């Protein structure tokens, strides 16, 4: 088999791995994609994410143009205008900062993943155990004893990337937890109850209580039109909330049981002078059977790796896992997919050799990713102390996210 005929091996069928698959398919570059989960619904993916309109449309406009609108959390959301959001003082309800506008989509991660999977033949239930260089590229081994050879291994296997840890070792390749703890949950609200939150912002808002340091993020997940309840007797709005705080001692660690986590959130909502009424009452009314998830706040500032002479690379959260406080992870991942596809295209058509193509991709991505991780880390810390926030803080200033 000659080199140009060998496929690109993609590991990870999350939104970035699938975005790369769509981009390679559009470019006519052969690929195979593998995912450790047994099927696309193996894990909950009901969160909403913000994605740059430009990044998403660059990847999908020609491949899946008619379906782009179907992934928005609100079908009436406009994307032809720049949308600003606010950072609130959660004690007074006043706007502490207005985060500058940026043209973006607020989309369902699950629906986006389903959209990106269209027309892509994913090999499910395949977990990477090792890889090695070959004369023509790279051989990838899976935990079930099977293997595959390809021209390049492109790992988009998430923040806990096995490929990254194989490249760098656990000590250097593992993410580092920050001194912040975060709990998150979904709620289904009546139109009346949702209205009190949506009156603050129709899509998302966030803020900090200056007396307690508690940070709260709220975002719309779906409207009755999106979740199928519009024509029922009880239309519902789905929302997600995250509550986080700085760790100053053992008392600030996340409780083990769901009931204790729920009590923790409700206690934070009432602490000090309490959160603004809309948020406090929403949290106080959380049903007892609501699942509360512990979101580990961790990151990994990108460092160079030895990619076996241009045979192995990382992208998305595998390359630059960052905290959620700036909302740029998906956009950076899609930028990675677009840029890697362009470099691979130049190699497959003979304009560059493989090592040059991967080196050029990684040079830009590593610098951009490293900076993005550190900016998100600082935003995470600043988000829990209103006194540290200024118009130039990375929590507020998003100029770098126009990627």
UniProtKB/TrEMBL annotation:
<keyword id="KW-0285">Flavoprotein</keyword>
<keyword id="KW-0274">FAD</keyword>
<feature type="domain" description="FAD-binding">
    <location>
        <begin position="6"/>
        <end position="180"/>
    </location>
</feature>
<dbReference type="InterPro" id="IPR036188">
    <property type="entry name" value="FAD/NAD-bd_sf"/>
</dbReference>
<dbReference type="GO" id="GO:0071949">
    <property type="term" value="F:FAD binding"/>
</dbReference>
<dbReference type="Pfam" id="PF01494">
    <property type="entry name" value="FAD_binding_3"/>
</dbReference>
<dbReference type="GO" id="GO:0004497">
    <property type="term" value="F:monooxygenase activity"/>
</dbReference>
<keyword id="KW-0503">Monooxygenase</keyword>
<dbReference type="InterPro" id="IPR002938">
    <property type="entry name" value="FAD-bd"/>
</dbReference>
<keyword id="KW-0560">Oxidoreductase</keyword>
<protein>
    <submittedName>
        <fullName>FAD binding domain-containing protein</fullName>
    </submittedName>
</protein>
